[in-house]
Amino acid sequence: MQQIQKNFCFDGEQRTYQWHSDQLQNDAKFSIYLPEQALLGEACPAVFYLAGLTCTEETFAIKAHAQRFAAQLGLILVMPDTSPRGESVAQGDSWDLGLGAGFYINATQAPWAEHYRMESYIVDELYNAVQSHFPIQHGRIGIMGHSMGGHGALTLAWKYPEKFKSVSAFAPICAPSQCPWGEKAFTHYLGEARDTWLAHDAVALVYSKGALFSEVLVDQGFADQFYHQLNPQLLQKACAEVGQKLTLRQHQHYDHGYYFIQSFIDDHLQFHAAELTQ
Amino acid sequence: MQQIQKNFCFDGEQRTYQWHSDQLQNDAKFSIYLPEQALLGEACPAVFYLAGLTCTEETFAIKAHAQRFAAQLGLILVMPDTSPRGESVAQGDSWDLGLGAGFYINATQAPWAEHYRMESYIVDELYNAVQSHFPIQHGRIGIMGHSMGGHGALTLAWKYPEKFKSVSAFAPICAPSQCPWGEKAFTHYLGEARDTWLAHDAVALVYSKGALFSEVLVDQGFADQFYHQLNPQLLQKACAEVGQKLTLRQHQHYDHGYYFIQSFIDDHLQFHAAELTQ
């Protein structure tokens, strides 16, 4: 695991690492924010952040303005890339498929299946590696994400509740089986049999697995240019039906970008810190 | 003046405008953060932020994490580009000359003199335009900047103290006449007569014009990879000799980038808000 960038930030360090991923069959990067407590060797709770389409391991680190409050709370932030990378990796035909669009699932179809294994990469390989290399409190790991990464956070939390103790999302794709982005990605990565999609669809998972968390926090802007892809009302309905407490905050004027995320990031970090230290 | 981007952020708006600049003889962009108070028509104090080499009107808006506290303080932030742009503009031979490297002066030498008039653009054209278009409190305008923009903030404040009531900087080029970046830029933009450079050198201006501000705030990282270009000790000596109060904070471990700036941006905004509302 090679450290390729390091910047001091709020008495902690924002770092980028490159390493070989067995799951992705290629080199991969992730970035991590270590608050001062972690630099001093003190074990801290951690939150994985999964980014959206076209993003990388740098996007959240640069644009979300999370380090200030993570430093105050003593939270480690783990920021993976959004897909496998490299010349040998299937590239896709546009910004919503292939590179930058891994959708946090393990693809089963050619040409994707060889490298597009973001689910196993996140929940097994990276999850274990960061716990070996950094002072993370045992079992105190949360997950959040934005858009495609909000889908990733919700689905991975519902698939692996033993691994993630808290979950939140900004403008998540709540029901990828029922929107153009998800239909395109799942058709390519998983094939045309729609019943196989449901294991990777947050709304379907909530119905099938029921209430798993004490609370879920979701923020959504009403001026989101991709609102039609996101279906927060379906998540709200599913959570209500199974008795899962969902705090869904919908905000006038806010759009889909990081100016929206930065406006509410402190609330999400506070939410995770509270859930993880219970 | 055409608004080309708008994002709601902390109950205010981050906007980008494009307009024709007579000074730069070309189209130019700037971005502006308007806190909620300004959106409601209430006059607010404003701070110009001048960015460093290679940056644009977007850099500070995305990377400095200033909007949260600007919203709290009710401060307008004005973020110009760092040079003229366009195909007709002399491009320069590298990242430290020409595009992205206007140095906030009016060039006197060919081929630069036609478009490279960032000083007049900032202090006359843009200064007047933002006061006409946005609810800025009369006379309550400060200036800050980073690196080349820290040089710009200090020199424009010392040249035009009637226009800027407060000044601060992150890792400024304090004495461009005495460092490689400044020597290269001034030789090209102003010619080889070094005595003409002194009117655009913060340390020389402090000596020649004396103490002009109740306080100046400068932050500098000791791990700054460009420390040898910056000469904070010369600014400290000049301010001490003329009786100008300078709060120079030098920080272990921090480097030259925006992870450093974001760590201390709140202190700068607080400083300007206090100075501007006196």
From TrEMBL, chains A, B:
A single Gene Ontology molecular function, please?
A: S-formylglutathione hydrolase activity
- Pfam families noted in UniProt: Esterase
Reaction(s) catalysed (UniProt annotation): S-formylglutathione + H2O = formate + glutathione + H(+)
Q: What is annotated as the active site?
A: 147 (charge relay system), 224 (charge relay system), 256 (charge relay system)
Task: Tell me the GO BP annotations in alphabetical order.
Answer: formaldehyde catabolic process
EC number(s) on file: 3.1.2.12
Q: Spell out where the chain crosses the membrane.
A: none
Q: Which UniProt keywords apply?
A: Hydrolase, Serine esterase
Q: Which family does it belong to?
A: Belongs to the esterase D family.
Function description: Serine hydrolase involved in the detoxification of formaldehyde.
What's the protein name?
S-formylglutathione hydrolase
Q: State the species of origin.
A: Acinetobacter brisouii CIP 110357
